[in-house]
Amino acid sequence: MLTAAIYTRQSKDKKDSCSLEMQMERCIALCQANGWDWKVYSDPGRSGKDLYRPAFQKMMSDIKNQKINVVLVYRIDRISRNIRDFFNLMEEFKQLEIGFRSLTENFDTTTPLGRAMLGLVAIFAQLERETTAERVRDNMLDRAREGIWNGGPVNYGFGLKKSVTIVNNKEKNITALEPIQEQLENVERFFEWYLKPGGSVRRNVHKANSPPSIPTNNGKPWACNQMTRLLRNPIYCTADQDAYEYFSEIGVEIASDPSEFDGIRGLMWYNRRKPHGRASTKFRDVDEWILVIGNWPGTVPGKTFVAAQRKLDGNKEKPPRAATGKRGLLAWLLKCGHCGKSMTYAINKKSNKDDGYTYGYYRCRSRREMGKSVCHGGQIRGEVIESAVIEVLKKLCSDEKILNEALTAAKKELDKVWEPLFEEKKRLYAAIEEFSEEEQNLIKALGKSRIPINLIELRLEEISKEKEIYMEKLRLLEQRMDEENYTPVDVEIVSNNLKSFNKCFDALEFEDQRALIQSLIESVVYKDGEITINVYFVSNDIVRALSPHAQACGSKVQNISFQLVCRLEQDIDLSTTGKRLKQARLNKKLTIKKLADMVGVTEVTLGRWEKDLGQIENHPAKIQNLCRVLEIDVAYLFDEFNDNSFSSKLKKVRFEMGLSRREIAKILGVNRGTVLEWEQGKKPHKYKEIDILGKIKNESRG
Fold first, then answer.
1. Residue 186 domain-assigned?
2. Which of 38, 378, 433, 578 might form a disulfide with 612, Cβ 3.0–4.6 angstroms?
């Protein structure tokens, strides 16, 4: 007996179109008349422009599995409106020896004439679709000219206003764009900021996100791609001659007459994006874009908009920055502990004057692109955190006790997850085996006629259905386990493989070192001097794909992970007063502005002191305040009081007492120059050193 696949489809639920139920009823009636079995495949709300429809794909799968003999449709445009797809489908049916029949067009695909007639009908079906698409396109252009919204996300600076109009004596709801003046003023600022010397998309984003912030339509901070889209959007561009010349130059189809570019209204794209689905790129070719004048006022002059486009295009065509492929050992692994985003590797533009070495830093991508108001995560010297991670890995891979404890704990966690799955698999196998055994017993009973045949057949049918359900459960379970790729863990093998890390890492090229680290680490999270290393072990196949050398550290284990948390001990340069001052401030987690306000100096002054540019020693009162706020000793700050010389002792007393050289000179009855000479190493002749220090302390306390 033949089995027919009844395929039904309806794009929209229209009163004048064939409903899915009607298509199904007519096709089933034909199957009953011919004595065929049937199976229904239905795609409600799906277009016939392509073949990527769930029920259709299921039908094709059943056809290839030889479950179907003939395909039955109410009308051929139900199966496809694309002539190329249709003919390819007919050719595939022919190769698979599958018949095709349409109820309303009585075609026989086994004859040349029938195939030719079928092709003609398909051509007219595609013509109808293309005509409909052209009609829809013209309608949407007219709607855009009238300011009626054609759907999609609403652009920043606009809202939607719903109203009712009368068309052909019928009420029709329409949705039109409504300018939001406050937001459009922000748009003007964005263009102004961008076109200033030194302006950039990133600086626009930082300014927009800095207090008082300018939120997006959904109340979130701006991102660089959002700002770029805004600057590119002609909805803000005034339709004037500058705009007309620019869009004509780039080859866009302009649907409005040149005389309409009168410098009053705004513009809108149409047909710029490809439809969702299996499109290869996001945008169509420029010559397919359509530009239309709307009925809302333009926001920025065409000259301003064009200047922004030229600048954006110029930035896009700039040569790529110097390659950093040989740097950034933790690229793609390092995450910001504050916002969870990646930390990207960047080269510091300033190089060390002594050795000419350029420093690399990892910086939070959110803060870099969206500003510190979005994320206050800082940056970290590349060599500092990379050395720390390598040191931790080496310690892990060389300490057998730590390694075995971690792996054993991870194995237990893994077994907790997999043990129920193995138990379920065992249960399903046992149930299927029981059904098979009962099936065999019933067949034997059938041969001996001990039980009525109708009862045996009824039970056999029940067993078959129940067995099929259990087999499907088993298939899905095994598929899940295959995807998880579980392999029993041999702790000894994993341990031996990891021990080779110390032996091979330092000898590898940079690319292989990075691949090796990626084969061991899932991610590294950095937050306020603390790093969390999420370690995992992947299969040898994956490791080999990363690098042939990285295989030495692989294992046949997946999905084992554990964390290593350590405090990042940076090799901090404390060689100058400014560097010690900066580190003390960072230890207190204070910004320059905050500390400057607490001490009573300007941000510029404090910044210069941290760079060893200002005369900090001339401000003893401020030094006292700094040491009090930062909870440090004056001796630590200046690091000049470790020796036992008189000059060091004199400086220490002066700083501790908060006195200037002039005040010291007044106490001792000498001039200021003498005090300076003493601090520079010259010894006093008329006074004993101990008397000088004692007198300063006594006088200042009194």
1. yes
2. 578
Residue in this structure with the two tokens 């908060």, named with its chain if needed: 658
Q: CA torsion sign, 19 to 21 to 25 to 28?
A: positive
Question: What is the arithmetic mean of pLDDT over 626-631?
Answer: 85
Tokens of 171: 């009420």
My answer on whether 132 and 169 are in the same domain is no
Same domain, 170 and 252: yes
Alpha carbon distance 645, 635 (integer Å): 14
Q: What is the CATH number of the domain that holds 641?
A: 1.10.260.40
Q: Does residue 653 register a pLDDT over 80?
A: no
* Residue 337, token pair as written in the block: 């502990």
Tell me how far apart the alpha carbons of residues 519 and 540 are, in angstroms, rounded to a whole number: 9
Q: What is the pLDDT of residue 17?
A: 58
DSSP codes joined into one string, 436-491: HHHHHHHHHHHHHT-S-HHHHHHHHHHHHHHHHHHHHHHHHHHHHHHHHT-----H
Q: Which residues pair with 161 in a beta bridge?
A: 176
Based on the fold, state whether residues 170 and 280 are members of the same structural domain: yes
For the chain, the farthest-separated pair of C-alpha atoms sits apart, in whole angstroms, at 135
Consecutive H or E run containing 423: helix 400-448
Instruction: Tell me the CB-side half-sphere exposure of residue 446, using CA atoms within 13 A.
Output: 14
Helix (H, G, I), strand (E, B) or coil at 45: coil
Rg of the chain in Å (alpha carbons): 39
Dig out the tokens for 654 from the structure.
């002066």
Cα angle: 639, vertex 642, 643; to 5 degrees: 130
Confidence of residue 291 (pLDDT cuts 50, 70, 90): confident
Closest C-alpha among 202, 233, 200, 205 to residue 220: 205
User: Which tokens belong to 533?
Assistant: 């290393």
Residue 219, by phi and psi: left (phi above 0), alpha (psi -120 to 50) or beta? Answer: left
- Residue 6 reports pLDDT greater than 70: yes
Q: Which of 252, 275, 303 is the last residue of a domain?
A: 303
Judged against a pLDDT cut of 80, whether residue 54 lies above it is answered with yes
Does residue 493 sit within a domain? no
Are residues 290 and 164 part of one domain?
A: yes
Residue written as token pair 């295009």:
313
Q: Under DSSP, is residue 41 helix (H, G, I), strand (E, B) or coil? A: strand
Q: How is residue 291 written in tokens?
A: 């530009």
Residue with structure tokens 């510091």? Answer: 348
* Dist. CA 651–CA 284, nearest whole Å: 74
Distance CA 557, CA 539 (A): 5
Helices and strands (H and E) in the chain: how many: 25, 16
Alpha-carbon distance of 260 to 65, in angstroms, equals 61
Virtual torsion, Cα 375, 377, 378, 381, nearest 10 deg: -130
Strand order, beta sheet including 379-381: 343-351, 358-364, 379-381
> Assign residue 171 a region: left if phi > 0, alpha if psi is -120 to 50, beta otherwise?
beta
Q: What is the pLDDT of residue 191?
A: 95
Residue 406 lies in a domain: no
**CATH classification of the domain holding 41:** 3.40.50.1390
Whether residues 104 and 162 share a domain: the answer is: no
pLDDT tens-digit series, residues 171-198? 777 777 889 999 999 999 999 999 988 7
128 and 51 within one domain: yes
Q: Within 10 Å of residue 76's Cβ, how many Cβ atoms?
A: 23
The one-character DSSP state at 300 is B
Cis? peptide before 275, omega within 30° of 0: no
Spatial CA neighbour of 312 closest among 233, 232, 206, 244: 232
334 vs 18 pLDDT, higher one? 334
For residues 319-334, give the mean pLDDT: 66
Q: Are 574 and 580 in contact (CB under 8 A)?
A: yes
Q: What's the rounded Cα separation, in Å, for the pair 368 and 365?
A: 5
CA–CA dist 461, 446 (Å, integer): 14
